[in-house]
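Hey, can you fold this one?
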Amino acid sequence: MKNVTITLEEKTARWARIEAAKRGTSVSRMLGDILRERMTREQGYASAARDFFAVAPRQLRAAGQPLPDRDDLHDRADLR
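Sure. Predicted structure:
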């Protein structure tokens, strides 16, 4: 664990103390949990973006051919 000092406006600090008390924890633990959640969410997003962009785009049509129409793109014959 690493100690970090933060500066808050009095109104924000009061809210944080009350909110932490409602959750039965300390302000320090509550902020640590919030930051850990955010870090995890952002790392997950970055990982998903890397995975998405790692896949090469695929060609939907041959050169000179029209784009597929909506029915072809959304054909779900097995659901009918």
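Residues 12 and 76 are 53 Å apart (CA to CA). Let me know if you want another pass with a different chain boundary.
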